[in-house]
Amino acid sequence: MDTRISTGDQGFIPFGVGCRQCPGELFVTTTFELTLANLLYHFDWTLTDSVSSESLDMGEVLGMTLHQRTTSRELKLITMDELSVGSLCFIAVATLGLSLALKRALLSSKTQALKLPPGPWNLPVIGSIHHLLGSELPHRALLRLAHRHGPLMLLRLGEVPTVVVSSPEAAMEVMKGLDPAFAERARGTTIDIVSFGGKGIVFAPYGEHWRQVRKICVVDLLSARQVRRLETIRQEEVTRLVDSIAVTTSTSSPIDMTQTLASLTNDVIARAVFGGRCRQQEEYLRALTAVALTAGAFSLVDLFPSSRLVRWMSFGERQLRKHHAEMVRIVNSIIQERREEKASPYPAGAAAKDDDDLLDVLLRLQKEDSTFRLTAEIIGALISDIFGAATDTTASTLEWALAELIRHPRAMEKVKEELRKTLGHGRATLTGSDIGELHYLKMVIKETLRLHPAFPLIVRASQESCQVMGYDLPQGINIFINAFAVARDPRYWKDAEEFNPNRFEKVDKDMNSREFNQKGFEKIGEDINSTTAHLGFIPFGAGRRQCPGALFATTTIELTLANLLYHFDWTLHDGESPDSLDMGEVLGISMHRRSNLRLQAALSVSSGLSSHSN
Ligand code: HEM
């Protein structure tokens, strides 16, 4: 039924007339009618402060006015001065609704012939967002929705259609079978700002630029040779950490392991990139954190990319641009300083030196005769991508591993026993070469990554139209691969919610994984450093956009965890029980523990540190 109120009568033209007549009239009138009917049906309304109805101020003011209902059934009029951010959002959302309703009508005619994946019901304007609101984090809410709608599901996040992949089979098709079609990353205003317009690697559009920077990362920055070369840095930083913890053992004061591990990974990465001789390192890390925090906040701009109104209202976008500009300024100044510091900066063709840090490697490559121009902007973008991808992920994985071991004393005892048996007693330091035989320790890390993937949602986009699991996915659609859901699929992981490192023992002899292989799922590597035993385990992603820093990450995590568990016995502070340890999650750059992990350390019987550090 058409409830339009315009009569077309020239004496009544609240929505205008003619070819520019408001196209949102139907939307607005239905909203007004429903709201007013509800307000008048449910409540009796009076004026506050005994104002009589005759004296009610009916004066006009130009701007926007809104009315507000309070639970005490008072009527209050507010003017533009009092207009809240929420009210502004309401206006924005309503206005957006008009344009989106029209756009969707046009779009739906284009997609009618396609067999799209199923999904939850949508509301006007916000689409499926209401299914994701509440206390659950997005990866958990999406897992819940996948139970109802299936492993491939279509959502509309604001105006952005997004397909969510939630099973190993679907992940297999997207990341392996159709790898090139899905090697694109999703774009958006926030991503464009933080990624220098895709000039780095993480959010680079799939194409020639990405191929070139990926080659630099895989061959020159994060190769096995480079990771070995950085062994000294890892070793020194972990030793420094162990010594600082040893000092606390005599005072029995608790240690904030969240902060301690964040500092460790920051220092390791900063020394690897800047060589530890960079004056502005701290300043850079502060600017990077400000960018990460602003970018991590909920962004309407990304949900309604076509809306100029949302853009105009977006405080976050302006803040993000400001913090990002500061980060660019600092990194440019670091590069400039490095060039001036070197007597003969990076002559073309000169061999890399042993003490070259990653910035040296990049500046040296810049001098090489190549068709690919490695500009200062690309170097800055690569450096910030490496910091962003490396520090938070490594620290949070270490923290989850410690927390899980505290909650599982038998696993803790088993890993410590392996350390004692393999390395003996009385060692003051453990090095990278001690790690090779620590199989149970590696299984603990794998199990931690399975239950707590640093990036629970891996973000991709389709660069061509294709079919997945019998459904049509149009070109340019955003894809979320729910690594969290995939690693909890009960068909492949028995007691999937349980922390059980043993499940990684001989993974292909395991009943579940045999079933996995029989169904034709290919193993794509067995060693932890190749990151994936099968597609039910994708903490580092898979396919051509798979994490190139996995070796760097796992060597740092293994060395740190081995040292922490060899030298110390860990307990919770103040007699807190392991069962009550908060394992809640929160999303930052990566998925963290909700509360800081505060632990007490005592020197273990195996440690050779007692006289050394105290
Ligand atoms: C526990 C630690 C880490 C985890 C769990 C992790 C996970 C991931 C994941 C899931 C992706 C997306 C992969 C995909 O789309 O298939 C990724 C991409 C990436 N990671 Fe990591 N990562 C970690 C540490 C690191 C480290 C230490 C570095 C560098 C030193 C790094 C550098 C990168 C880069 C450059 C990309 C983008 C690759 C591309 O788009 O081509 N990561 N990582």
TrEMBL record:
User: Per the entry, which co-factors are needed?
Assistant: heme
Q: Which InterPro entries match?
A: Cyt_P450, Cyt_P450_CS, Cyt_P450_E_grp-I, Cyt_P450_sf
Annotated Pfam families: p450
Q: Does the keyword Transmembrane helix apply?
A: yes
Q: Where in this chain does the entry annotate a coiled-coil region?
A: none
Q: Does the keyword Transferase apply?
A: no
Which keywords does the record carry? Heme, Iron, Membrane, Metal-binding, Monooxygenase, Oxidoreductase, Transmembrane, Transmembrane helix
- Domain of life, source organism: Eukaryota
> Where is heme annotated to bind?
547
Residues of the signal sequence? none
Entry GO MF terms: heme binding; iron ion binding; monooxygenase activity; oxidoreductase activity, acting on paired donors, with incorporation or reduction of molecular oxygen
Q: Which residue ranges does UniProt annotate as crossing the membrane?
A: 83-102
Which family does the entry's similarity section mention?
Belongs to the cytochrome P450 family.
Its name, as the record gives it, is Cytochrome P450
Q: Which organism is it from?
A: Leersia perrieri
